[in-house]
Amino acid sequence: MGLITPLYDDLWNEYVLWSALVGLFTFGWLYHHSFYYTAKEGESPNVDNLQVGVFPKEYDNLKLELAWFIAPLILIIYLTYISWAPLDNIWSAANSEVGYYGDECETGESSNLMFNDDLGLYEANCYEVIGIKGYQWYWEFDCFDLSEDLCAVSTTTIEGKDQPHLSLKAGTAYFAVMDSNDVTHAPWFVSLGIKEDVLPQQTTTQWVLADEVENFLLLCTEYCGDDHAYMIAGVSVHA
Ligand SMILES: [Cu+2]
To answer: Ligand 1 mean position to 9 CA, how many Å?
Structure first.
């Protein structure tokens, strides 16, 4: 599940619902009007005597103009409001006051990643730091001084090719510190539903919440040249 908790599912459903309603209204309106205002058989195609470059002031409707402005504004403010907690959760910086994952773990201290039902988000006592670097066209992982159990790097065969492999421990919050050797890449932890750009000479970060025992792929989701599609790594989360 990773960062994609029930809170995000609710958010997704809400966005899909409003998109459908607005789409239905807009295209329904458009569809209706394009027939309603079509010139009838034998009728002049310009019954309103519209002139090019002249706005038909007599049709101005302030109430409609205001409604057209205020209704979408209210919807946008509402959608921004409900997105706030999930975005704050994804973008929270390490060691920040709003941090959900505590400080960096001391040696031997357990991250203890847990799902908080009330918040609908994950929380942890502390987090472990890992490194990710993008190259044309492969990934390099760095476990720094973490124990083998918490983080291990090896190689694995994916579609007949040797590719890097990252092993993580379930129940641990990881903070990935990332950059690129050359161009922009973006590691996508497919099963966790998270991705973030990596850039040359600039550090970016992302939370990697290893909550379940599972194996999945890490793909590049920022087009980076010829072998972009083969910039694959294996990730496994063990108990
Ligand atoms: Cu790439």
So the answer is: 28
